[in-house]
Structures are given as structure tokens and as C-alpha cells.
Prior knowledge:
Helix content is about 70%, strand content about 5%. The protein is mainly α. Strands 2-1-3-4 form a four-stranded mixed sheet, sandwiched between helices.
Amino acid sequence: xxxxxxxxxxxxxxxxxxxxxxxxxxxxxxxxxxxxxxxxxxxxxxxxxxxxxxxxxxxxxxxxxxxxxxxxxxxxxxxxxxxxxxxxxxxxxxxxxxxxxxxxxxxxxxxxxxxxxxxxxxxxxxxxxxxxxxxxxxxxxxxxxxxxxxxxxxxxxxxxxxxxxxxxxxxxxxxxxxxxxxxxxxxxxxxxxxxxxxxxxxxxxxxxxxxxxxxxxxxxxxxxxxxxxxxxxxxxxxxxxxxxxxxxxxxxxxxxxxxxxxxxxxxxxxxxxxxxxxxxxxxxxxxxxxxxxxxxxxxxxxxxxxxxxxxxxxxxxxxxxxxxxxxxxxxxxxxxxxxxxxxxxxxxxxxxxxxxxxxxxxxxxxxxxxxxxxxxx
Length: 377
């Protein structure tokens, strides 16, 4: 491999990038725009849940339960209603997510020490949100019921009864339970894969369509030198995108960065090399720029969003899909970024993921070189 020829390809491709100021501006601005858009729009937090309460009992005990819901930050009580019809109408019109029905004998059951059931009506159109809302509502009712039981035991026996189980929760790594701390690191990985693959997916196909490939064929340039030189030119753009994305995540979304900056930089660089090589491989496979672009989108966007664990937990996927996710590079870089940002873990924990990304980059480089060699032949 000749350093002079490699440098010549790098400079040629870099000139091509800088000449098209509009495309360069888009390549630098789109990742930041996507991060801001998805970072603010894609929120997994479930709070301020709109709800209505139907209090059939109308006693001090039932009003106290209503105040428990009103005092919770997870619920936004839109009012008290006088029947099931108002709750049903609110759910049908997407005005509320939950209705709470307190039965007529609620205070009697509470006073007698019997079970006092409370009915929760949920909009199950979104099953995940409904499950979270149900958990919040059950927690409010359970904690209030436990306090009533302790007060009743105190009045009857003179001693304050303790809870049979005293559960004390301690949340690690994301103590505030804000979804942006979980979403933004994954977004950085997914956006970088999409942008990097699309940046290089047109390079080889464009050379054939513009007729410049014949000029390259007349030179002693080798396929490996062409692939590596083109990758290095777009690698500069990818590093700039990654730097801006990390800065936006840390300073705009205030995601904590607890781990090693050098490890973060190395991991992102290794990942960029692999996905840039993949874009060149796609460009060599396709015969036209349109086909290369479509194939680049299909092979980067869908796997990065659906199979990386960015939004959907891999552990809950079918076994066959879980096996397929092992060949998706964004899965590993999502794990690395979340580990470095939130957990502050180092190479001793993340060496497997980083090793796979390095192996992936090497394999795709070989495949891209061979495919370009077949094209040139």
C-alpha cells in the first residue's frame, strides 16, 4: 500500500466534500437537528397522567384518597365526575388515560378493617403506557391503604404496627429516572450510524455515474487504497458530527458523562470506521446512486432503530431476533455509550463490545476491498 496514493485519494475526496458546501452543511447540521428533535420528542417519561375520579362514597376517607392522587406528581386530576359515562367519554376522546372509581362502601370497609377495593379504568390502547400508569396508581392506593391500616392498629391496640416488608429503593446510574439520560446516548449511536452509512454509500456509485472511475482505472491505485482513502475523508466529517452530538448531549440535555473521555473517543472512532466501510461496501454493490442510497437507508436506519436496544429492549424480543441483533454494530456502541455516560464503566467491562466493533470494521474493510476489486476488474 502506497502512502502517496492513499493521501492523494484522501485529498481528492476531501476536496469533493468541501466543494459541495450545501451537502457539507447538511452533513454537519442534520445529526444535531436529529438529536435535538428526537431528544425532546422521544420521551419515555410517563408523568402528569390525565385522570378523572368518580367518588361514589363521598366520605372523609374517600376524599383523603382523592387528595393522595392530587398530590402525586404522576397524576393530573382533571376533575371529579358523577358517573362512568364521563370517564368513558374522556378515554374515547383521548382526554384522559385513567379513571378512578371509589365505591360507596369504601369508608365502611376501611373502618371495619376489611379490604376496600378501588376500581382503576385504563386506556389500554398503548399497553406499555397503561402498564406504567397502573403501577403508579397501585402504588398510591397501596401506600395509602398501608397507612390507614397502621393508624387503625394504633387506635385499637395502642401500638403502631409496622409494615411487614419495608422496601427501600435505591436507583443507580439514573437516580432521577429521566428518560433523556437513557435516550440521548443511544440516539448519538443511532444517528452516527445512519449519517456515516449515508455519507459513504454514494462514493463508488457516483464515480461510475460521473465517468471518473475510468480515470482512476488508468492509475496504479489499488482497491484497498481507494477504500481506505475515501473512508478517511468522510471519517473527518464523522468525527465532527460525533463531537457536536456529544457536546449537545452533555451541555444541552445535561446527560451525565461519568466515564472516560479517551475510551469514549476511541469507541466512537472504531464504530465510525466500521460503518463508513459499510457505506463504501454498499456503494460498491449498488450500480446507481439511487440504489446505493436506498440500500444505505435500509441497512442502517431500520437495524439501528429497531435492533440496537436503543428503544426496544433486546431481552424481550423473540429468540430469533435476539440472535440477529448480534450482527448489528449499533447494538454494541449503544451499550458502550450508555455504560460510559451513565455507569462510568471502563474497558474492563466494555472490552467485548469494543472488540466486536474492531472485528466488524476489519471484516467490512476486507469485503469492501474485494467488491471494489471486482468492480474494477
